[in-house]
Amino acid sequence: MGTRTAAALYVLALVAAVVGVDVLFFRHHILGRLIVNIGIVLVFVAFYLTFLKRR
User: I want to staple 26 with a disulfide (CB 3.0 to 4.6 A). Which of 30, 33, 45, 50 is the partner?
Assistant: First the structure.
């Protein structure tokens, strides 16, 4: 699997996680949705920097 394919799958997983949490838990809570979305993105960035980034 190429680097671009892996990156595309990683971004797709990020989008799926954000949309899934929004729809399931925070449909009517705008501020909570924003805070949780930022947290999810930060977790994905931390995971990427820790495990997936090639040096």
Answer: 33
Using an 8 Å Cβ cutoff, are 36 and 55 in contact? no
Q: So where are the chain's domains?
A: 3-52
Q: Residue 23: how many CA atoms within 13 Å on its side-chain side? A: 6
**pTM, rounded to two decimals:** 0.85
Give the mean model confidence (pLDDT) for residues 23-52.
Answer: 93
- Tokens 């980034």, residue located: 53
Report the amino acid identity of residue 22: D
Contact predicate 33/26, CB 8 Å: yes
